[in-house]
Amino acid sequence: MANRHEDLTRLLRALQLHHTAVGVDELALRAAKEGLTHAAFLYELVQQEVAYREQRRFERLLRASRLPREKTFTQLDLSPFGPLLAQQIERLREGTFVQQAVNVIAVGKPGTGKSHVTAAVGHVLVAQGQSVYWTSTAALVQHLLAAKRDLRLPRELARLDRFGCVILDDIGYVQHSRDEMEVLFTFLAERYERRSVILTTNLVFSEWDRIFKDPMTTMAAIDRVVHHSVILDMMGLESYRAKEASAQKAASAASLTPA
């Protein structure tokens, strides 16, 4: 029996079932106590291995995504967004837009929750087993520019292409030089109709010439981003930071008012 146990452990490890090899003794004891059939024992064994692998995959995807851990739907109140915008966000949670290579553009003033919404969608996608990459636009542009200088741009674009969805935060804050604008446009053009991009911006499309400088390049970039896209119009929302500041000011004033 000892040799059979050793052989079983060795075979499980040979099949890359390392988690099963560790837990097989405990499960065998439970199966004996509960009188599980061979089929039921095998089912429990396989189910544990699958659950373990799914958890490991989730952890790898989450690490690779670089998503801000605190920006999830658990911490997000959708009520200030209104019914139409909330409905759009709920549909994004289904994740089908990634398979369809649809882009998402969240347009709004600073503090309206663009980054939180898009990061929360990213967390849902990771939980579904989809590959996501979160980065500020400034960081991505500098990374691509360095890759171009080192003649590694095609390799870096191929690496980013492995992600089903890339989330670019704050595209409107970066005022690009021509070289920076070119690598950003190249990135967007490479993913056009093949991979999803989620963008947050505080600039309406008529102001995107601040980013891409040249009118023709601006038009081409907008065309590629907007074609097959969902636009989250958050321009009419009030900044939550401004609301918090107003509430704190009111509370402070109330505390100073004599009873």
Automatic annotation (TrEMBL):
SUPFAM superfamilies: P-loop containing nucleoside triphosphate hydrolases. It comes from the Bacteria. Keywords: ATP-binding, Nucleotide-binding. GO terms for biological process: DNA replication. Residues 100-232 form the AAA+ ATPase domain. NCBIfam families: IS21_help_AAA. Belongs to the IS21/IS1162 putative ATP-binding protein family. This is AAA family ATPase.
